[in-house]
Specification:
four-stranded parallel β-sheet, porphyrin biosynthesis, heme biosynthesis, Rossmann fold, 2 domains, binds fe (ii) ion, alpha/beta, binds coproporphyrin III, about 40% helix, about 375 residues
Length: about 375
């Protein structure tokens, strides 16, 4: 059913005239690695020894992170899904830590004549790292361009930005992960493992305990968000396979000094402990990551796989949501939901699991780096825009 000739139906994306695909960024070649790591760790006091260690992970992959190509693939998939639905909305890509930078994306939005953009962050969960840090980056970069009004509401004086809510509990994200885990169980059987005895281990990025505590302002903590979708995916996988699936949540990629507590167990420690108890078969599902970027390629496919092999386990790593159709369709649904909210309409915010839809406009003090420590940094897309 196409539009009637002679009419120009209002875009369902209004008031938005652009979509910002907002990501982390990563190096494209060896010479990028150190400057990239300095961007990531600016002002965080991460010692050079740790930078060199992380740099090794990148050099081992030719100095190139897969993340940029994966974001380009997601951008193309979003454009195709928008075109399929007849929605005319340009997609602009920007990153916090590598080119195209946030400032490049803002300039591109301005060149397009965009007035109000909706940001889609490539992180499904709420915490400082997955939410507020992006909101702060937008504000700080605008400020650096002389385009943040810090006298009043702390608003942008150029393109206005809204943000799509955290989507870990959106049906599209959960379905795409469920499909990927089912494929993982098939791959385990093909590898000679026993799917009826396999443990499903969900994996996400560890964060400091202090960041976990501060994330509760977002309606449920970072770990609680993962546990809620983990339970749901395991239940759906069990229903599809016709037997109960035991599951647990593990963490990867911790950094920081050993004296600072981060979320545990580490995936390697968990595998070691479970192997000692007799567990032989494992499906690892990286629900904390939206694509197979460096954390997945190194921390899971390289490190955790080596641990499992050493322990004599049969292990497979399930896919990430990447450009899977239910995920991409869900992201466009979320964009349309956000647009309807911005138009002041009553919206049915779809969720699965036991948690509510997370806020589209973050609460004051939401997802700070640490409790009780206002960052003093302005952040867009929240009720505390002036910080
Ligand atoms: C929760 C979370 C996500 C998941 C959400 C999401 O997907 O966004 C994520 C994603 C990513 N993290 C990435 C890379 C890095 N993260 C670092 C450091 C840190 N991450 C943290 C948290 C997270 N990070 C934290 C609490 C730190 C400590 C320093 C700090 O408090 O900020 C460091 C510094 C060195 C180190 O300390 O390891 C690097 C190089 C890449 C790019 C990968 C690629 O290149 O393919 C991606 C997608
Ligand atoms: Fe990280």
């Amino acid at each position: 059913m196409g539009p009637m000739s002679g009419t120009s139906p209002a875009s369902p994306a209004l008031p938005y005239d652009a979509l910002l695909l907002y990501s982390f960024g990563g190096p494209n070649e060896p010479a990028d690695v150190v400057p990239f790591l300095r961007n990531v760790t600016a002002g965080k006091g991460i010692p050079d020894s740790r930078l060199e260690e992380v740099g090794e992970h990148y050099y081992g992959f030719g100095g190139k992170s897969p993340i940029n190509e994966q974001n380009l693939a997601l951008k193309a998939a979003l454009e195709a899904e928008l075109a399929r639905r007849g929605i005319d909305l340009p997609v602009v890509w920007g990153n916090r830590n590598w080119a195209p930078y946030t400032a490049d994306a803002i300039a591109e939005l301005e060149a397009l004549g965009a007035q109000r953009a909706v940001a889609l962050v490539t992180s499904a969960y709420s915490s400082y790292s997955g939410c507020r840090q992006y909101r702060e980056d937008l504000a700080v970069v605008l400020d650096g361009m002389g385009k943040l009004d810090r006298s009043g509401a702390g608003a942008s004086t150029t393109v206005q930005f809204d943000k799509i809510r955290s989507y870990f509990n959106h049906p599209g994200f959960v379905q795409a992960n469920t499909d990927a885990v089912l494929e993982g169980f098939e791959a385990l059987a093909a590898k000679g493992g026993d799917p009826t005895k396999a443990r499903l281990v969900f994996v996400t990025h560890s964060i400091p305990d202090t960041m976990e505590a501060a994330s509760r302002v977002a309606q449920a903590t970072y770990s609680a968000q993962h546990l809620d979708v983990g339970a749901l995916i395991a239940e759906r996988v069990g229903a599809a396979l016709g037997h109960d699936v035991e599951w647990e949540l593990a963490y990867c990629s911790r950094s920081g000094p050993p004296s600072q507590p981060w979320l545990e167990p580490d995936v390697n420690d968990l595998l070691t402990e479970r192997a000692g108890e007799g567990l032989r078969d494992v499906v690892m599902s990286p629900i904390g990551f939206v694509s197979d970027h460096m954390e997945v390629a190194y921390d899971l496919d390289t490190e955790a796989m080596a641990t499992a092999t050493e322990l004599g386990m049969t292990a497979v790593r399930a896919g990430t949501v990447g450009t899977r159709e239910p995920f991409v369709r869900g992201l466009v649904d979320l964009m349309l939901e956000r647009a309807a909210m911005a138009r002041g309409e009553d919206v049915d915010q779809e969720t699965v699991g036991t948690l509510p839809p997370f806020r589209s406009v973050c609460a004051p003090g939401c997802c700070l780096r640490r409790d009780g420590e206002p960052s003093g940094v302005p952040a867009l897309c929240g009720a505390d825009v002036s910080a």
